[in-house]
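Hey, quick one: can you model this chain's 3D structure?
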Amino acid sequence: MKVVISAGGTGGHIYPALAIANKIKEKNKDAEILYIGTTDRMEKDIVPKTGIKFVGIKVKGLSRKISLKNINSVLLFLRAIAKCKNILKKFKPDVVIGVGGYVSAPVVYAAHKLGIKSCIHEQNSSFGVTNKFASKFVDRIFVSFKSSIDLLENKEKVIYTGNPCGESAIKVEPVKKETMNLSPNKKLVLIVMGSLGSKTICDKMKYMLTLFNNKDYEVMFVTGKNYYNEYDKKKYTDNIKIVPYVDNLVGLLKKTDVLVSRAGASTLSEICSLNVPSILVPSPYVTENHQFKNAMDLVKKEAALMIEEKDLEGDILLRKVEDLLTDKLLVKKIKNNLKSFEMTVGASIIYNEIIKLLEDKNE
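Sure thing. Here's the predicted structure for all 363 residues.
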């Protein structure tokens, strides 16, 4: 089996794409996989390190505002389609999988024009611009949230899979807390706002962390690499740990009692798969406010708590954290409700559906 996978721009697209690629390699040792990404975003560094063959194309996203830059973006898109056609003709894939980010649009469209079977996966509860465009041309549409199904007209193509990162998370070994300067016997509150962090949250946390001083549980705040040096750690007692980055975040999640986090799709898939009680603080700065919509999918099912960034003031975080640390009935309800999101076999479902699609092609 020969497969082309395309995704780019952010880890929210790249890591689900790699989870699908890894599942294909696990199930089919002879599978050949080609990853098509951009020449200037993070996938160009991440993907080659995995051993997957990588080809970069030059393409830019469209600005949502009227701009002359969009003329250049359209020209690059048309050139990218032509280049992708050449790549696909040479590689001759059985199927093409787009996993989001604007780079996947010309890849999926080129596959459509060449008559190659294709699929997309949408990580968020609302569809991004690329996947809205691509959904018109593909044979299967995989979604992470059941609520996404109602957003599409061609529902016969849609299959609920969950996020493939959830299945990957289950296989990760738990960390030993002692290796991270944490007590093995105390409850852990983990606060993390993405690998780069958030300036707004970091500014708020400088005061809010002092409210956790001298508690009988530990708080680890992952600032993000950009903001670590802003913290005067003398203000905080020994139960508060401040770090710029955690290498094995999923492994640490397995030892976390309460997670405070943004509401990116991959993070939510890990929360659901690992059954972690969480307080979500969705980023208000993302396209179409999709993190708020992601979070609401869990909140409406009473599978998570939420604080909007604008409301993150005073002792609200302390109160919600301590609710989750002390209210056993609340935690039990959240954990039971998380199970309904079924994000533990997403990569396997996608693999099986791809095999069905190829079998249909050969009949």
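One thing worth noting: The longest strand covers residues 32-38.
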